Amino acid sequence: MSRREKDSHLTSLDGRLIPYARWFGELPALRARYAANEPFPHIVLDQFLQPEAAEQLLVEFPAIASAGWIYQKHVNENKLGMQDRSTFGPMLGAAIDELNSQTFVRFLSDLTSIDGLLADPTLQGGGIHQSERGGYLNIHADFTIHPYRRHWRRRINVLVYLNKDWQDSYGGHLEMWDRQMQRCVQKIAPLFNRAVIFNTEDSFHGHPEPMSCPPEVTRKSLALYYFTAESVPPVARSTQYRARPGDGIQALWIYLDTMVLRCYTAMKWRFGLSDRVASRVLQVLSKLTRK
To answer: What is the Cα Rg of the chain in Å?
Structure first.
């Protein structure tokens, strides 16, 4: 393919959501950066979506008081999630669909050098997330297989932030830690229209400090996960939370909560439980603890 034909092909890929001509055009450099970044392969892409699309996503993003949020509030996290694609607004649904499209998955495969990536239209563990003042997510490595497809090995995380005018003082930065959990290697602010893409396996990350944003401000993101189909079922592991140096007695609670989560995950995988079951319990407990 000639340079002119290649440029024409890339331009034809551009849509109203993702500027594919830019990202495919920069792939050689992006691939090298992705592989070299520490503490695990990752990359930060600013102005990831078309500007108009990002603005519309922010308009459509459901408020905290909206119905449909799944409560994810326990020792190791304090946030809300929503993964029912049918409840999303037109642009939000279109964005989720585009991030699950063959074109975007091909971009991810080229970027990460992982062949055979598969999107998950059921958005297990993903979808959209939102955290209020005081919200946090302890450092962790994610679950390793798809809950309902035991041959699907989880490989890539894609996070897209929708936080306008986010201040450093609010906190909520994505922290990436080394595998030994001795130090934070990267801190990434959750800025508007910024995407973070990284390898899933043994990648310790989170935003563990409770946020101090104003009460009317929330941390908003899209989260999508990608898999490969393996001939032999991968080792199944639930989310593994880890204490940081200096966490003291909190390390015990982090460990105990992780063990409870492991039991719940085993039941979920065995009996096909929905996260809404746990959400209802956590919602009741959350209300009781505020009384």
So the answer is: 19
The pLDDT assigned to 4 comes to 42
Residue pointed to by tokens 């959750």: 190
- Structural domain of 69: 3-289
- pLDDT for 6 equals 43
- Assign residue 11 the CATH number of its domain: 2.60.120.620
Q: Which of 220, 241, 209, 202 is nearest to 42 (CA)?
A: 202
Q: CA dihedral defined by 41, 210, 169, 186, rounded to 10 degrees?
A: -20
8 A C-beta contact, residue 159 and residue 45:
no
User: What would the pLDDT profile of 218-242 be if each residue is shown by its tens digit?
Assistant: 999 999 999 999 999 898 888 999 9
pLDDT of residue 224: 98
pTM here is 0.89
3-state SS class at 150: strand
How many alpha carbons lie under 13 Å from residue 206 in its C-beta half-sphere?
Answer: 26
Contact 205, 223 (CB under 8 A): no
Question: Omega into 190 within 30° of 0, i.e. cis?
Answer: no
> Residues 252, 145: contact at Cβ < 8 Å?
no
Q: How many domains does the chain have?
A: 1
